[in-house]
Amino acid sequence: MAKKRIINEYPEISLDPAALEGHVDFEAIFGRKAPLHIEVGSGKGTFLVSETRVHPENNYLGIEWANRYYKLAVDRLGRWEIENVRIIRTDAAFFFAEHLPDNSVSWFHIYFPDPWPKARHNKRRLICTENVQQIIRSLQPGGVLNLATDHADYFEQMEEVLSIEFEKATLLQIPFTRASGAKEGETVGTNFERKYIVEGRKINTIAAKKP
Ligand SMILES: C[S@@+](CC[C@H](N)C(=O)[O-])C[C@H]1O[C@@H](n2cnc3c(N)ncnc32)[C@H](O)[C@@H]1O
Questions:
Q1: CB of 74 closer than 8 Å to CB of 63
Q2: For ligand 1, is residue 43 a contact (CB within 6 Å)?
């Protein structure tokens, strides 16, 4: 019989969404001032496990909505005793609007966000005008939004939403930055990217910087 994996809790890296009020003080949460990278939809935490160790000079916050993935990510990050990471189980759009201070984020990493492929569900997509406004507001000048998706229609929506910002020069298009954990032929090396590459899907990327 297969052994059941024990999932541990690590309160030192888990942020309790109920304990947050208004804009978050990231310096207090991490116990130091450092560039803040936010990954939305961290899944099982693969990006965070590799990136946090390659860049100990940065603070990383993972936002994950699904309880099962959130718990797995906490368990993995906790086992590695990674100190420059925190993870929260909440809806990213709510977190952006309620808790992100202006000019506080160095990077947003959003890799393979749920595509909501049915037309009537498109409005649930994370990359939409409203959320991009929150991203721009909370990015520091020079801060980066790095996006990847396998989904052609969602990629078109990302390009449309961002092109409006490029025209207004509220964002500038820049080359996509590959993640430290990406192997040959990968852009970020997350679980979903690896699955999609095996399935032969095209991976689309787009990136932008706040001037
Ligand atoms: C397709 S998976 C990609 C996971 C990971 N980024 C990867 O590339 O392997 C999308 C993830 O985003 C999470 N998610 C979806 N909507 C979210 C939201 N509004 N806020 C936070 N996480 C969300 C899902 O629970 C899921 O884990």
A1: no
A2: yes
